[in-house]
Here is the input.
Amino acid sequence: MKKLFLCLWALSISFSDLSAQGKTHHHKITSTKKNIVKYGTASFYATKFNGRKTANGNIYNSVKYTAACNVLPLNTWIKVTNLSNDKSVIVMVNDRLHARTKRLIDLSKDAARKLGYVRKGITRVKVEVLRNFQLSTR
Here is the structure.
C-alpha cells in the first residue's frame, strides 16, 4: 500500500510539472497528501469493444463499471462525478485510452448511463482516487 501511495504521489508531482508547462491536454490536476483529484472530459466505450481484452487482461463488458484512463494506474478505484448534474459512479481503471486522446477518461456504457451523458456523448467530470477501497462481493 505504501508503494502504491508513493507511486501515485510521484505521478501527481510529475503531472503538476506538466501542468505548469501546459502539456496536460486541458486536465486540471489537484493533489494533496490526502487525495488525488483530476478534472477533464469523459466519453464512453463504443459497443464494438464489448468482449475485447483490456490493458489489465480483463474482458471489457459494457454493463460493468470500468474505465480507461492514461493518467492513473491500472486497477485504481475512482469516483467519477458528472459536473453538469452532480451524479457519481465508482469504477475501476482497467484499460488505457489512445495515446493521443485529449480526454481524461472513457467509461463503460452503463457507467456513462448512470452519469446521464450517453445522449450527449461527452461531459466534464471530476475524478477522485479512492484510497483503501475494496469492492464488497457479499
